[in-house]
Amino acid sequence: MEIIKVVAFAFIALFLVLLFKGKRDDIAVYISIAAGVIIFLFMISKITAVLQFIQQLAAKANIDFIYLTTVFKIIAIAYLASFCSEICKDAGQGNLGAKVEFAGKILILVLAIPILMAVLQSILKIM
To answer: HEC profile for 40-90?
Structure first.
């Protein structure tokens, strides 16, 4: 199972981080960031498979791809903002991580406005 590979890799990285923590904090941070990036890259193929499946479902349901693309962008922003925020927190920069999360939330809100407007227009047409 792939989760076992991810967990084993994360534990090895954690062991190395703890080994260097206190002696060479810079190396500990680099190991932590590298491990996070490697795990993220490992998951890209899984994310791609899920997105393709959702696209197939949307095509069968005759959902406009503009909305689907917007939803994919929102999901990507959420994951990337969370990932970057966690890296910032790992590096001891929780303040910067909080700003990244805030920026991600604002960008998601901006992207969601057209979808909200379409939903409201649909509701108004029904009434």
So the answer is: HHHHHHHHHHHHHHHHHHHHHCCCCHHHHHHHHHHHHHHHHHHHHHHHHHH
Instruction: Compute CA distances 73 → 2, 11, 13, 33, 115, whole Å.
Output: 26, 31, 30, 24, 12
Encoding tokens for residue 2? 């792939």
Q: Are 16 and 31 in contact (CB under 8 A)?
A: yes
Query: Whole-model pTM?
Result: 0.70
pLDDT along the chain (127 residues), means of 10: 90 91 87 89 88 85 81 90 87 88 95 87 82
Helix (H, G, I), strand (E, B) or coil at 93: coil
Answer left, alpha or beta for residue 76, where phi above 0 means left and psi between -120 and 50 means alpha: alpha
Report domain extents, the chain. 1-63, 64-127
